[in-house]
Amino acid sequence: MPPTLCSFAVDVAELDDVVTPELKIPGDVLVKFSLKTDSYDLPDYDDAMDLYGKIGKLGRDKVIKAAYVLEHGGIAEAVSKMAFGNKVGVDLCCGCSKESYFAKEYGAVIAEVSKEDLGKLDKAGVSYQKIGVVLETPEFRYGEETISMDEALAAWTKTLEKVFPTRSGVENEKLETKLFDAKTVYTAKHKVAKPRVFIPVFPGTNCEYDTMVSFESAGAEVETIVFKNMSESAIRDSVDAYVKAIENAQMIMFPGGFSAGDEPEGSAKFIASVFRNPKIKEAANNLLKQRDGLMLGICNGFQALIKLGLVPYGEITDITEDTPTLTTNSIGRHISKSVYTKVVTNQSPWLSKTILGGVYSVPASHGEGRFVADREWLKKLFENGQVATQYVDAEGNPTMDEDFNPNGSYMAVEGIVSPDGRVLGKMAHSERRGRGVALNIFGEKNQHIFEAGVEYFK
């Protein structure tokens, strides 16, 4: 069986815009759509195309409310993950053997359908098998056996806790912070019909593509230049090219990734050393001080802004040993998950299209994202409105809970801005969004920071 069949199933069915995996309504029926296979367990592709096309239409017609493509764990894995999302239970039909729930039926689809809509499956000409019913109580039932939702989740998430810990012992203190409502926001005096963004690319960075798409979609022109460091002449040429690009741009964006192989204690040192070159430093500072320019740094780019002093100071300058910084996650390893972040200031042009106090769900992926600063600096940043965003829980409260603040950042700080707000650094990847991305993650995902950057110059 081709290894891409599972993703192929979702793409062909076109479910990514209309159906999410989480089970939703108690009383609905779970059904399985199976593929026809030959003696080698290979699918009949003509049948698969026909089936997936019909499933896609059923999804668009709202007959199918949730769907999941079977993988190596079979029905048991699929149904469990579908139930975990909203913590609704499932009663598995006793007419199916225990073995059938763990059979590897790659490419088969589990779907949630209301009892009233089962007849529509027949009219659509699709064969299906009932495998269970959605329950209101958070538990899994099979005959006389019952497993609570908490027990099942613990088995899934905590079995390897000693080997691969998810907790580092960060104290889950209660955080009380306020929103900073700025009276005025810096506006550009130099207007540009179509602003230009310069994205410097360094060995190991990898988010320049998504970032370029985001800015171009927002109406900007984008120039990306790879910094070449294989020889002295290549370095000199790259410096000159960077100076020219900065002089032609209205915005500089440092993308995420793993510059210099994401070496410990600050992979962005390489980026910072390049931008401290006298020629580049002068051009970058001139962009901010003389031409009303903007700068943005995400993830690895945020690390670069910190090391250059662009945040919190607002220009490339020397930093001191007490300057806020980013360091290794409290868990001691890379984390990758969606986080909820709240916008807590509105004095930055980058945040002009967000809602003050609004919560956004954004992907995070980093090994050195823990924001640390002493109490004096934290107090100053909050009082100046320089804390842009904070990690928050499901209720929108800033938190140290590692389920929601996965790197252990002090005061749950996720992003900060320069004193005038024109430089924004943040850890979570606002550029990682698009059609069919993270539909199973609840919440608003688009912070519109790229559109805000473009409109600043209009």
Explain the overall architecture.
With 458 residues, the protein is an alpha/beta fold. It has 2 domains: 151 residues, Phosphoribosyl-aminoimidazole Synthetase, Chain A, domain 2 (Alpha-Beta Complex), CATH 3.90.650; 260 residues, Class I glutamine amidotransferase (GATase) domain (Rossmann fold, 3-Layer(aba) Sandwich). It is built from 13 helices and 18 strands. The strands form 3 sheets. It has a 9-stranded mixed beta sheet, with helices on both faces. Strands 2-4-1-5-3-6-7 form a 7-stranded mixed beta sheet, sandwiched between helices. β6 and β7 form a beta hairpin. The longest helix has 17 residues. The chain is elongated. The N terminus is likely disordered.
Task: Considering the chains and any ligands shown, give keywords for the structure.
Rossmann fold; 458 residues; single chain; seven-stranded mixed sheet; alpha/beta; 13 helices; 18 strands; Phosphoribosyl-aminoimidazole Synthetase, Chain A, domain 2; nine-stranded mixed sheet
